[in-house]
Amino acid sequence: MEASLGIQMDEPMAFSPQHDRFQAEGSLKKNEQNFKLAGVKRDIEKLYEAVPQLSNVFKIKDKIGEGTFSSVYLATAQLQVGPEEKIALKHLIPTSHPIRIAAELQCLTVAGGQDNVMGVKYCFRKNDHVVIAMPYLEHESFLDILNSLSFQEVREYMFNLFKALKRIHQFGIVHRDVKPSNFLYNRRLKKYALVDFGLAQGTHDTKIELLKFVQSEAQQERCSQNKSHIITGNKIPLSGPVPKELDQQSTTKASVKRPYTNAQSQIKQGKDGKLMKQSKTVDVLSRKLATKKKAISTKVMNSGVMRKTASSCPASLTCDCYATDKVCSICLSRRQQVAPRAGTPGFRAPEVLTKCPNQTTAIDMWSAGVIFLSLLSGRYPFYKASDDLTALAQIMTIRGSRETIQAAKTFGKSILCSKEVPAQDLRKLCERLRGMDSNTPKLTSDVQGHASHQPTISEKTDHKASCLIQTPPGQYSGNSFKKGDSNSCEHCFDEYNTNLEGWNEVPNEAYDLLDKLLDLNPASRITAEEALLHPFFKDMSL
Ligand code: ADP
Ligand code: MG
């Protein structure tokens, strides 16, 4: 080892430089760990201080999740006579809007507690601090187990996800953030739970009363294009009556706020209903989605062939820049279009990415399709983009540009794309990525067993998308498949070995279902109820 570092040692040393380095690294790690532990301890103390009643019931043990909008803790509780129970305590950021909090709770209490939808045990509030107590489900990290799952486990995973989606969709809940970290999976116990309704919205006929406020705000925002003020996040006045208790707790803090309506959009909409990307259009056109020779640039507009149901806003094609790659001054002065676009970019459906105002439960099915794509290809995350148009271009590299443009027309959007890219055959794509196709040398199990930390299609790599997906994963330097690579997932297989069972004969039904989930047209996309009846799940019962 020393030789490779070019270090010659005359005498054996008790502590080689290498040894010192390891020691230094070790103590650095330890320090980091101690620092982290101290931080968690402090957070737990603060939580007890903020919501003192928690200490009567719970012993908070650890912090298990931290996002922009909440921190989740593992606690134990002696709730009834019997053994201690493990509880997950979700502490929502105090600046969350009361309606948003109440809607999240109502989703859990009304739809939760069965069919793989997380339920709620208690909720605690002190001033603007809200803590939701839920049954704790120990779960796996998706990335850690991705490539060790047997094909049967993948079937079960998807079946159980659809069960949860069917349940919430029956209640008119659009989850809007379906992704592996919001679908908890305990592999050993075969238990599943859909969590996190923090971004949920209601369908027009939702049974979750409070989602109607969230929804009506979305509609109000959408239809307020003629108002002169700019509406953002929580500052929108409530249109409906606010439950008194919630109203009085309403917070004025201006830090991070979870939107309880739609996020701001970058696409403008004018009186004629035409949508244009505002200042970012130039960036979009010059964005390197391709090598210099094969740039793919996208631009989204209201197409004017909008179906009546797609939006209540009128559309016309009268300005100068329609169907060109320029943005005229009329369009630049248009008001921004607002449409729901919360969620995680890599899981956003085309109608979300193009800011279609009328979004349905179909957006969750698209996200489920992206999860399925990861499971079948062994790659996670599959798409990674920092903005919507890049994400859209990435989708095109899999589903085809012509097909995407065609589908967008059905929901009233016109997409301009500078380059035509063909649709991929989903089976060939997944088999290639997994290293299972006949043209690719089979991967040894220890290599194959390592899930990629890198997105399959990222901003860095998406310009190579079409050639990337023809490259066997073991050879592609953009992915961490090489053994010993410091990026690789080192503890993927502590518990489970790669399970190749079933992967050699993935039935056509799997790709048929994937195709139906990744249907670019939300109107024809398969529903959760239909998915459960798909031949892919023929021997499985609800
Ligand atoms: P956020 O809105 O911050 O994303 P989530 O509700 O998704 O909050 O929770 C964040 C993380 O906390 C989840 O990804 C999961 O790892 C963990 N978590 C949440 N609820 C539970 C639960 N009931 N049991 C176990 N872990 C949970
Ligand atoms: Mg979450």
Give an overview in words:
Strands 1-2-3-5-4 form a 5-stranded antiparallel sheet. Strands 11-10-13 form a 3-stranded antiparallel sheet, with no helix packed on it. A two-stranded antiparallel sheet has the order 6-9. The protein is globular. 34% of the residues lie in helices and 12% in strands. It is of the alpha+beta class. Bound molecules: adenosine-5'-diphosphate and magnesium ion. The site of magnesium ion has 4 residues, from loops.
Secondary-structure blueprint:
Layout: H1 2-5, H2 17-50, H3 54-57, E1 58-66, E2 70-77, E3 85-92, H4 98-111, E4 122-126, E5 129-135, H5 142-145, H6 151-170, E6 173-174, E7 183-186, E8 191-194, E9 201-202, H7 209-222, H8 244-249, E10 267-269, E11 275-277, H9 281-286, E12 298-302, H10 329-332, E13 335-336, H11 350-353, H12 362-377, H13 388-399, H14 401-410, E14 413-417, H15 426-434, H16 445-448, H17 465-468, H18 508-517, H19 528-532
Antiparallel strand pairs: 1-2, 2-3, 3-5, 4-5, 6-9, 7-8, 10-11, 10-13, 12-14
Helix pairs in contact: 4-7, 6-12, 12-18, 13-14
Magnesium ion (MG) binds at residues 67, 181-182, 196.
Strand residue percentage: 5-15%
Q: Whole-Å distance between the termini? A: 57 Å
Envelope shape: globular
Kindly report the average pLDDT value.
76
Q: Give me the Rg, rounded.
A: 25 Å
What ligands does this structure carry?
adenosine-5'-diphosphate, magnesium ion
Keywords:
542 residues, alpha+beta, five-stranded antiparallel beta sheet, three-stranded antiparallel beta sheet, 34% helix, binds adenosine-5'-diphosphate
